[in-house]
Each structure stands twice: as C-alpha cells, then as structure tokens.
Amino acid sequence: MTNRYAVVLAAGQGTRMKSKLYKVLHPVCGKSMVEHVIDQVSALELHKIVTIIGFGAELVKSTLGDRSEYALQEEQLGTAHAVMQASPQLKQEKGTTLVICGDTPLITTETMEALLKHHEETNAKATILTAHAEDPTGYGRIIRQSNGDVKRIVEHKDASEEERTVKEINTGTYCFDNEALFQALDKVSNDNVQGEYYLPDVIEILKNEGETVSAFQTERFAETLGVNDRVALAQAEKTMRERINRQHMVNGVTIIDPSNTYISAETIIGSDTTILPGTTLLGKTEIGTDCIIGPNSEIKDCRIGNQTTIRQSVAHNSSIGSEVAIGPFAHIRPDSQISDEVKIGNFVEVKKASFGKGSKASHLSYIGDAKVGADVNLGCGSITVNYDGKRKFETIIEDGAFVGCNSNLIAPVTIGKNAYVAAGSTINNNVPEEALSIARARQTNKENYAKRLKSKE
Ligand code: UD1
Ligand code: MG
C-alpha cells in the first residue's frame, strides 16, 4: 500500500476572526477547530502527520501534543509557503500527502478516506476535494476546461466576475503525490491580489506540466465549511451540535429538543438518559445511564453516575454519584464529591465539599470546604461559615449527624458522629459524638405582655 502522510495548515492568525485567540484554536462545541481536524485525520492511520504552526505555535502544540509532528512557519506568506515548511519531514518521502486546513472543523475521516481512494485509483498527481456551494463567496473556485477537466483554482479575490459565478469550490483539502507536490511548490509565485504563495496554484503548475489533476466532489458541503469569521464559526457550531446530538440519540439518549441542547464534543452519555431543553453539557462531562438532566442546566467537567436527576442546576468540575437528586436551582461548585443517593435540594450551594452516601441538604444551604459523612441531614438554612475574610477553614460533619434548621457552623469545626445541632444554633466549638448541642439564647415568654402594652397606651 502507498505510504500516506498529512499536512495540517494551522499557522495563520485568522485576521477575519478579530480575536486575541488564534483562529484554529477557536472552539467548536468545546473543542478547538484544529483538534477536530487532527482527530479525524488521526483515524486515517497515516505514516506521519505534520502540523504547520506559526501564530500561537506553542499553544497549538500544547493542544495537540504528540498526536502530530510540527513545522514552524515563521512568516505567514501563504498556504503554499506553509506546506513547504514540512520539507524537512516530508520532501524525501514517496507516497500520497493529504493537505488539509486547520479551519475546516467539520471534515470527516470518511470524506478524506474517499478522497484518498479516488486519488490513488485515478493515479492523479493531485486531487482536490471540491463541493457545490450555493453561496461560494470567499472560497477558491474550480475552473474547468471545456472537456470538464480541472484547469486551475482561482481565489475569490483574484477571480473575474465570470469566474465568481462558478459554484464549485475548493474545500482546502487535497491529495498530492508527495514528490510532485514538493517540486511544484518551488514554482509557486506570489503574483496575486494578496501577494501570497497560494497552495491552489500547484494545481495549475502540475496541469501545465502535463500531469493528471482531478477533482473529487463531495455531496457533503456542510463538512467542508472553512471558518474564517465568527459567522462561519456559528454555522460550524450548529452543524457540529446537530452531529453530536444525533450521535447521542443514535446511542440511546433521549434529547427532547435537540435544537436547544448544547453538548460538547467530549461529553459521554449513557443510554436511557434524558436531556431536557436548555441544557448545556461542557468539557469532558460523563453521564451514566437512566439520568434526567435539565431543563436549563449547565454541567461542566463532571462525572455523573446512573439514575441521577439534575434539574435546573449548575455543576462544575465535580463527581456526582448514582441515584442522586440535585436541584431545582442548586449550584455544585468545583472539587465537590457527591456520593450515591445524596439529595442536594433547592437553592443549595456546595463548594469543595464531599457528601457521603445518603446525606441530604434539601433546602437553602451553603456547604463549602466541608466533609459531610454518610446519612447526614443538613436542615434548611444550614451554613458552613468557612471564611474569615482572609482564609478558608474546614467543617467536618460525621456520619449520621443531624444539623437543625438555620444553623451556622463556624469553621474549623467538627460535628461528631450521630450528634445533633439544635435549630438556630451558631456552633463554634466541636460537638462530640452522640451529643446534642444547643447554641442559641434561651427563649423567655413574657405572659400577657401584649395586653399590658395596650393598657399602657
Ligand atoms: C483557502 C484556499 C481557498 C479555499 C479555502 C477553503 C488558499 C490560498 N486558498 O482560503 O482556495 O477555498 O481555503 O476553506 O489556500 N495558513 C497557514 N499559513 C499561511 C496561510 C494560511 O498555515 O501562511 C493556514 C491557516 O491557518 C488556515 C489555512 O491555512 O488554517 C487556510 O488559510 P485561510 O487564510 O483560512 O485561507 P482561505 O482564505 O480560507
Ligand atoms: Mg479559511
């Protein structure tokens, strides 16, 4: 089999994005565009992948890690110049080289595989992946000869009025015979409107040398979207979102309103889980089976067990067990561990706290910097007083403890096993195991006070 290589172009700044963030690092459904491309390219099992980096080189490198080799393009002189930077890694090689832009996040392995197959079967020196675009504005156009053969690609900015009416576009993905590619790159000039060395010019160069160049038109135009500005970014996001949601549904997840459900590329969801409208699942979130999530919940980087319900709530960077009930209107802040069968109810905020199995904070509480054991009941309005304005302190509530309503637990403090805290207490000393602590003013009733007051008046 022919050796296969890939060059991913990712050195550009992306001026049209008008952003501090380099273009290929802009996320689509939570994953950077260039990562989407590398993920799909990696599945092709190539001999070598070389990513061309320039703007944000170190960031792109740390994003992709060892999934690619790198070549630095110090000055962004155009896409042909970018590919040339891979000479040290590729120039000597024999085989097929796939070139793909880092700003086409929707392209799939299947489409690239079909392109490679077509290229190798037709024995062409170059094959362009093309698509029919209803609105081809901005793309390079495929100019064909009268016999239908590809003649050249003309960039939108360089195209004549007539050429601009062509709706067959260059998707920016190509296959080349590696040796033909590198010898042609040397001949590319920058005599064009943008003063850049255009990779598409290689097509005309090879054609003029009498080589076979061909085009492979994909039916899947949506996959070929090149993201140059935020409008296209939103389009890519929408298409990717539909693709992700569809895959979850195929896998057995119920999504009540897919057009209103936002799931990151790296989220994993078990079967028979239902995602209700307005829900956003971000980062590397993992949700088990038979859960109900939403409506209107935001979950980021959480691991959630099975048969758990999270309603109208926010949870970040935490682990949440099975058969847990959260919400409505709860906030689970980072570094929290919620064990199985826990209940975190309305208007409860949890921060950097662990809850043992079966514990409950059902209403209106703040539990921060705390270790809550198993089968603990935190009554309505239980508050951990964890902050003195400078430092944070820990509250420990041991198994089986019962904290009455509206109690302040001033940390550092420990409530012992099976201990009771009377409602309305402000606790600033440890409570021993099995004890009852009452820390509030004793009630005095003044008999007939109201009557006496009235008679005075
Ligand atoms: C490019 C193609 C165009 C095609 C379109 C498809 C050229 C000249 N034009 O246009 O025919 O229809 O893609 O989306 O190739 N890059 C570098 N170094 C550079 C310049 C660019 O690495 O010096 C990278 C960019 O980071 C980007 C990719 O190459 O990922 C494409 O560059 P971009 O400026 O987006 O080209 P388009 O104008 O979209
Ligand atoms: Mg582009």
TrEMBL record:
Residues 252-457 are annotated as: N-acetyltransferase. Acetyl-CoA binds at residues 386-387, 423, 440. It catalyses: N-acetyl-alpha-D-glucosamine 1-phosphate + UTP + H(+) = UDP-N-acetyl-alpha-D-glucosamine + diphosphate; alpha-D-glucosamine 1-phosphate + acetyl-CoA = N-acetyl-alpha-D-glucosamine 1-phosphate + CoA + H(+). Binds 1 Mg(2+) ion per subunit. Residues 231-251 are annotated as: Linker. Residues 6-218 form the Nucleotidyl transferase domain. GO terms for cellular component: cytoplasm; membrane. Mg(2+) binds at residues 103, 228. SUPFAM superfamilies: Nucleotide-diphospho-sugar transferases, Trimeric LpxA-like enzymes. Gene3D superfamilies: Hexapeptide repeat proteins, Spore Coat Polysaccharide Biosynthesis Protein SpsA, Chain A. Its main location: cytoplasm. The active site is at residue 363. The keyword Cytoplasm applies. Pfam families: Hexapep, NTP_transferase. One of its GO terms (molecular function) is glucosamine-1-phosphate N-acetyltransferase activity. Pathway: Bacterial outer membrane biogenesis; LPS lipid A biosynthesis; Nucleotide-sugar biosynthesis; UDP-N-acetyl-alpha-D-glucosamine biosynthesis; N-acetyl-alpha-D-glucosamine 1-phosphate from alpha-D-glucosamine 6-phosphate (route II): step 2/2; Nucleotide-sugar biosynthesis; UDP-N-acetyl-alpha-D-glucosamine biosynthesis; UDP-N-acetyl-alpha-D-glucosamine from N-acetyl-alpha-D-glucosamine 1-phosphate: step 1/1. This is Bifunctional protein GlmU. It comes from Bacillus mesophilus.
